[in-house]
Amino acid sequence: MKKMTKAMLMTALILGSVQWGGTAVHASETTLQEFTLDPMIVTASRMEKMDLDTAAAVEVIDNERIEKSGAGNAFEVLRGALGIFASSQGPNGVALGSMTSKIDIRGVDKGTLVMLDGMPLNQDGKYNLEDIPTDIIEKIEIVRGGGAVLYGSEATGGVVNIITKNKVRNSIKVSAGNYGRERYSVNVGNEKFSLLTHLDNRGEMSPMTTVVNKTMGKTKYQQYYNYSKGENKGLLFNYNVNDNLKFTYNYSKTNNTVDVMDNRYLKSPYQSKEYEDHNNNFIVRYDDQNGFIANVSYNTQERNYDQVNFKKQDGSIDKAFKYSWRKGHNTNIDIQKSWDVNKKDKFLIGATFKKEDLDVYNSPTKAMGSTPAKPERTGDYVRDVYSLYASYDWQMNDTDNLILNLRETIVRNCDGTEDNLETGVSNDSKKDDVNKFTPELQYIKKINDDSTFYAKAGKSFRLPELTKLFGGSVILASPELKPEQGTHYEVGYKFNENNRSWRLALFHYDIKDSIEAKEGTSASAGNLVYENNDAENLGIELSCNIKHNDNFDSYYGITYSNPKTRHIDDKGNVGEWVKTHNQLQFNLGLNYHYEKTTASLMANYIGERHDEGGKVRPALYTDLHFTYEPEKNHKVFLHVNNLFDRADYTTSNGPDEDTYAYYAMGRNFMLGYEYSF
After folding, report:
1. Which residues of 575-598 are buried (b: 16+ CB within 10 A; e: fewer)?
2. Closest Cα partner for 379 from 361, 357, 365, 364?
3. Which residues contact residue 324 at a Cβ distance below 8 angstroms, ignoring those fewer than 6 apart?
4. Measuring CA to CA, which residue among 273, 229, 357 is closest to residue 98?
């Protein structure tokens, strides 16, 4: 099977090379004109612009490419994007309580702002990409590079904006595969509204982690995790009140169970960890189509983590208890107005308000060996964040544009109250008021109608999460944490030629007060503490999209960079630079369509991986998708993931005798049928 899979991939690669070198040359002029190389971009500048006129590295994954890929959710789509490392503890992006999927852009840890229809999903640094099914996605816009000036905190690495459909195809879809996985969805709607529902049974996986050697007294034993079952269900409702006003509601509920396997326990698992997440997103968007846009959203995230311990002798339940619980509420308001100052220049001004409210419950951590032991406790954390932003686009002449972006961020009422349930004592911590001004300057040189050069420099800014300030679960409070701040530089070249679009970018960032885990602390010891350090990266990206002919298109990309960090201790002593994340990435996609058949291949190689403990072996993520439409309303599809059956690590850290690494699910497939009506 492995030989056959490798042969399939090599055949696709050879086909891509032949088509690139031959067929593309003979493509008709009409075909090339119809192919859209330069889609409209909204996210990068907050104003509609063509990609060539945008001073940023932007990738738009449209609905056609998403459908061809066969991806089931937003995480699977982003896993193959250039400049991105998509990590997760659970299989195929599954979240385990607060251990959610994560998107790192250009090696910036926790520096990605994820938005749904232009409104932020990040809540205490967390979001659930795997709970957003692709059936609801119109396109995904990815802006690589610091976007904090226009979009605020958490956009130090980049921005991902998931844009939902206004109109869906009425359909019923069912699919099933190995590992006990199943997926069902029903989509209905008309010109005014759309309703999309889905149910995923996420199957089982054994093992999902590496083996860790442990010692208790004189007894040596081994542990690893099994993913025993998982389920996700949700719905998205869109209602277009009129051409200007849109209402969106998205709900998802996830249950996941992980068993801790231990060779001392022969009749049952050692522990069973049960996770349950609830997510609600309400969004109201108003666009008068004349430059005024107003968005209001209210998001909730509830994450439960329960644990069951078993007896070694007979496998019966020894203890069942709630390990941790947290519920966050975020209210977001974003209002902006843009004007044409004259026939050439544009001006934009806007304001945002974000209210964060987080309730947490944490069980005692004595069993985890923390020193000193932490008692049973609850916490109530709040923070208000205000921002004013502006952008002026000055067209100096027919070929040169200078753009100035400004943002002022104001933090007030940042307060954390923690109650010790054993003593009844409350501890109240406040974070001093924070003000931060972040400017950015962009320059665009239009070389001709098909190519541009750009350069930009700007400041970045990221607020520490509330749990890192005031504590939560295994995290100890660090109210002295400072916001991240740094500088981003980037130069780039964009070129469209006939059936190809080329993008080249050279970037550098230097982040002071980077928020990272303190040396000598860990989640397994229950004493995790965050501190401010330094981080930087220098890298280059090159990508190409090709329309070979009416039936075949492809994309290729490569990025090489040097992300690293260094610790600064309590006395101000600066450590050595240490490499982190991955230095090398190569991705490709091949899409072929002929009459009733469509085939798509995606491969993403992540190499030169590092964490602070040393090198981590490379990863190769692959997807192969086939679709056959015997009739207009009928579609049969087969999706194969992890073609080479690789045991790749899905997190950025590497394993040692005391640390787990999480595996990618082995070769897995989904066979399905879709009926449209």
Report:
1. eeeebbbbbebbbbbbbbbeeeeb
2. 361
3. 97, 98, 303, 304, 305, 360, 361, 362, 363, 472, 473
4. 273
Radius of gyration of the chain (CA): 25
CATH code, residues 2-676: 2.40.170.20
pLDDT tens, residue by residue, 178-210: 999 999 999 999 989 999 999 999 999 999 999
| pLDDT one-digit tens code per residue, 401-457 | 999 999 999 999 999 998 888 888 888 888 878 999 999 999 999 999 999 999 999
Q: Could you tell me which of 329, 275, 332 has the C-alpha nearest to residue 301?
A: 329
Task: Tell me the C-alpha distance between 37 and 29, whole Å.
Answer: 14
SS3 32: helix
In whole angstroms, what is the distance from residue 167 CA to residue 150 CA? 29
Of the candidates 525, 518, 535, 434, the one whose C-alpha atom is nearest the C-alpha of residue 482 is 434
Determine the straight-line distance between the first and last CA of the chain, rounded to whole angstroms: 37
Please tell me the number of Cα atoms within 13 Å of 258 on its side-chain side: 21
pLDDT of 372 strictly over 50: yes
CA distance 205 to 652: 20
Residue 240, both tokens: 């277009």
C-beta separation of 337 from 390 below 8 A: no
Is this structure's pTM higher than 0.85? Answer: yes
280 burial (CB, 10 Å; 0-12 / 13-18 / 19+) is: middle
Q: Tell me the average pLDDT across 221-245.
A: 93
What is d(CA 254, CA 303) in angstroms, rounded to the nearest whole number?
Answer: 9
CA distances from 265 to 268, 306, 316, 616, 627 (A): 6, 20, 11, 31, 46
Give the CB-side neighbour count of residue 109, counting CA atoms within 13 A: 23
Q: Which long-range contacts (CB under 8 A, 24 or more apart) does 296-299 make?
A: 296/332, 296/333, 296/334, 297/119, 297/120, 297/330, 297/331, 297/332, 298/329, 298/330, 298/331, 298/332, 299/121, 299/123, 299/328, 299/329, 299/330, 299/332
List the beta bridge partners of residue 352: 334, 387
